[in-house]
Amino acid sequence: MRSPAAAVAWEFHRRHRWGLLALGAYVVVLAAVKFAMLGGQRFAFRSAESFAFAVVVPTTATFLYFLAVFTFGLEGDIAARESIYPRRLFTLPLSSEALAGLPMLYGCLAAAGLWLVTRALAVWPAKAHVPAIWPALLAASLLAWTQALTWMSYPLRGLRVVITVLWLSSIDAIVMAALHFQAGEGVMLAILAPHVPLAYLVSRAALRRARCGDVPDWQRLFTRSGSGASRFARRSSPFASAFASATTAQVWFEWRRHGRSLPLLVAILLPFELAMLFLFRETRAIVVETFVIILFTPSVMAAFVAATVATSTAFTATRPMSDASLIAAKLKAATWSALISWLLVIVATAAALGLSGTAPVILDGARWLVKAIGAPRGMVAILLAFAFLIGSTWKQLVQSLAIGMSGRAWLAKGHLFVTLSLLAVALPAAHWISRSKPAMAALWNAIPWIAGILVAIKTLLALWIATRLIERRVLSDRALLAGAACWSAAVLVLSAGMMLIVPAVLVRPYFLVCIAILQVPLVRLAAAPLALVRNRHR
Amino acid sequence: METSNAAIAVSQLTRRFGAKTALDSVTLDVPRGGVHGLVGANGAGKTTLIKHILGLLRAQSGTVRVFGRDPVADPVGVLSRIGYLSEENDLPGWMRLDELIRYSRAFYPAWDDAYAEELRQAFALDRGAKIGNLSKGQKARAGLLVALAYRPELLVLDEPSSGLDPIVRRDIVGAVIRTIADEGRTVLFSSHLLDEVEQVADHVTMISQGKIVLSAPLRSIKESHQGASLDEIFLAAAKEG
């Protein structure tokens, strides 16, 4: 191996050989099915879902895997401000052109090759016209842009995720619009051709800056605004005011480290969303849709931020605090983070609705609800909806603590892989069930059993974790009882609220209790201190 | 529990990482007061032993007690009495020095503001400087400041001067360690630089391939190996071990 290009290619192969081997096996199966079983003929699939299971889901999963591999996303902190490009490669005697170009070349070849192989070897529906080139170019473009945007340094933590998602979505939207207007292969190629060179130029510039440690920092601007007072305090006293307790200090630490990310991300996105209320004030449907999107923004953003919250360092591990107190500090900071984000959403949205004149559209909806189910039930429904949205924001922030605090990278990656795989299978399955009457009937009959089994599993897991917590003396009996009481109270309130809104004729009360039990977080939350204990005292 | 005379008592401690035995039936008593040097080549097991003392590793077999307490079962009771400075210096880079001091002070009731300021001035550290922007030597000094400002009963230094310039090494080795020992507190000081340990240690424990090959007061080691340097003694002990 004498050339840098070969060495870089070898590293990709060596690190990901098992994944690539599994991919090779899938390709062999595809080819065997097509040529050995069907003799190269096209096949009349019984439904779109069958085709999705056989071709679309594995191809999409493989493409996502390529994104993670060729962006080096499996090695770094995706939410960090710093470039995700491995720093160890910056010290190689290679130009920034080569550092950007080689992984991009291999990534684009892999993404385009994935399409060409799938097109050649997959069994396609009999009457389908399968384009040859532009999907390969689209795959390469999406991969190249993902590389460029993940290798770039950002002024705020978590901004990478937002910008990457928005940019890739806009490329997808352009392609979808072109398909909608039945654009030909030539037009599609013209639309997509500039993307890879542009992404290369952006990534080269990004790596040049990242290589010399140039990371923009807007957080300094935020701290600078309040620096006058702190400078005065620093002058008057050697070390400013003290924290009331170790717990307060640790909550401050968690807030400074992770807590501000969610309010900041929400604050960045919110103006764009609120602008829609002003731009489309005359179109009722868009106003309602925008309002719903705004309401889900904090919990969606919280899912992205969660990975950064669930981390622990050697510095934190050596603080003279109990494991439970360290987790409690994270939970408190997450609570503040969720509440401040929601305060921001409520105040800004109320102001925007008032100023744009779209408030009547939303108030009409509320009035309709009150009229339909009565004032008390309507009020409870609205309160429950807000409690659910705020609660789900907090839940998103803390539910992966158990995995993150374990400190096992393989567990976090495995969890992500399993979640994506389940989603890839669950979405087509749900679609198929919704269109099949026998399947819907069977599912409807099985729902009480499914809910019962899930509740039983959750209860057993919770009991097992509680036993471990007591055995290892991670939590005091009092803390454990207080936790159990809070959880029970939340389940009771949620059940009572749902029972008030949903008539017993429609849904049985026991089923609503099951939903409340499954909805209020318990197992993963209770497992977080245990995970920290295993990580902190390996 | 508190009647234990030893600051650190390790008994028959064994630790394996996969097939590799990092610590093999290690037994060590560090009495209160004085400087205890822990020497050994890179990978000998010094950091693994220190991580057990801090409760960052759970004993697979054997026991570890610090001031008579189990550091895994009682991290608050143990860590609040230990000052720790590691080779890796994992201070949070996003904090300013004054924030680090304000934050650290909350954990230690015995924190001494005047002493912290004295150390800050002695180490020539800027209160408003961001930790991430400090040089390696300045970071070591900042770490030492927050490890010392509450006058811990036990100071654990894990290769504190590794890769640092002679001036920082002098700060750590010469001035600080000796002062703490003179105040009757205990220092556990790990290093692979034998001359550094020789300057300050009262008692030396040599560790090689996870085993303790020699543990005795420095004076008696020197007396029993007349004329030999600590390097030569260590090499001989490692061969015998």
Written as H for each helix and E for each strand, in order along the chain, the element string of chain B is: EEEHEHEHHHEHEHEEHH
Low-confidence stretches of chain A are 232-239
Task: State the helical fraction of chain A.
Answer: over 70%
The structural domain count of chain A equals 3
Mean pLDDT of chain A: 83
Oligomerization status of the protein chains: heterodimer
Helix residue percentage of chain B: 25-40%
First-to-last CA distance of chain B: 34 Å
Protein model, in words:
The complex is a heterodimer of chains A (538) and B (241). In chain A, helix 3 packs parallel to helix 6. With 538 residues, chain A is mostly helical. In chain B, the strands form 2 sheets. In chain B, strands 5-6-7-3-8-9 form a 6-stranded mixed sheet, with helices on both faces. In chain B, strand 6, helix 6 and strand 7 form a beta-alpha-beta unit. At the A-B interface, helix 12 and helix 15 of A face helix 2, helix 3 and helix 4 of B.
Question: How would you summarize the topology of this molecule?
Answer:
The complex is a heterodimer of chains A (538) and B (241).
Chain A lengths: L3 H12 L1 H21 L10 H23 L16 H4 L5 H26 L12 H18 L7 H22 L4 H8 L2 H17 L7 H7 L1 H10 L9 H14 L1 H19 L4 H26 L4 H4 L5 H34 L2 H15 L1 H24 L2 H5 L3 H27 L1 H35 L5 H25 L7 H11 L3 H14 L2
Helix pairs in contact in A: 3-5, 3-6, 3-20, 5-6, 5-9, 6-7, 6-8, 6-9, 12-16, 13-14, 13-16, 14-16, 14-18, 16-18, 16-24, 17-18, 18-22, 20-21, 21-23, 21-24, 22-23
Chain B lengths: L5 E12 L2 E12 L2 E6 L6 H9 L6 E6 L8 H5 L2 E4 L11 H9 L7 H10 L13 H13 L5 E5 L7 H17 L3 E6 L2 H7 L2 E6 L2 E7 H7 L5 H11 L1
Parallel strand pairs in B: 3-7, 3-8, 5-6, 6-7
Antiparallel strand pairs in B: 1-2, 1-4, 8-9
